[in-house]
Design a protein that fits this description.
Layout lengths: L5 H22 L6 H8 L3 H4 L6 H24 L5 H15 L2 H16 L1 H25 L6 H24 L5 H12 L2
């Protein structure tokens, strides 16, 4: 019996996640089978299940990593460790990743699956709530005391709708100038 060290196990987990991301982009979440992910990762299906219970667990891992990444970025903004220009640069880079057409398609498929699958719905709901709190924290840190909690909540919802809506627009209209759209979003959100 082969015993993996925690480092080797972590590497294999990353390998599985990388394989899953590739499969999801190529075939979509629903069409991707666990066997395909395991094959792409170079492991047996049985070994796959030692790391992830199902596709929902993989999506949950991706969602938690995205929230953690966003939390680090917002923490830097809130604590004033980066200049306004650096905030804009980071946000621009983040948007480029989020709005890449293949990634946007996967995001939309996750939302579609969440409407049918209650466990996926819970993952999306939890992740969305975490992101909303982070964005609220950022707005609160950058707003004057006169700005009400209600106004902060509206700004946060508008920011999320703007980014989520842009993903839909870019899929429907791939001819849109993505850089122009990203620059407009950055100017709107980070003032």
């Amino acid at each position: 019996m082969t015993v993996l060290t925690s480092g080797a196990a972590g590497n294999l987990r990353e390998q599985i996640l990388s394989a899953a991301a590739s499969c999801f982009r190529e075939r979509g979440i629903k069409a991707t089978k666990m066997q395909e992910i395991a094959k792409r990762a170079g492991i047996s299906v049985g070994n796959f299940y030692n790391y992830f219970e199902n596709k929902d667990a993989i999506i949950d891992e991706f969602a938690q990593r995205e929230v953690a990444r966003l939390a680090r970025e917002i923490d830097e903004i809130v604590n004033g460790r980066v200049s306004l220009e650096e905030q804009r640069r980071q946000f621009r880079e983040s948007l480029r990743k989020q709005l890449a057409v293949q990634r946007a398609r996967v995001k939309i498929e996750i939302l579609e699956e969440a409407a049918r699958n209650s466990s996926m719905g819970e993952i999306v709901k939890r992740s969305d709530a975490q992101v909303r709190e982070l964005i609220k924290k950022m707005h609160r840190s950058r707003s004057s005391a006169e700005v009400s909690d209600e106004e902060i909540e509206v700004m946060e919802e508008m920011d999320m709708a703007l980014v989520d809506g842009m993903a839909f627009r870019l899929i429907a209209h791939p001819e849109l100038d993505i850089e122009r759209m990203i620059n407009a979003i950055v100017k709107t959100v980070i003032r």
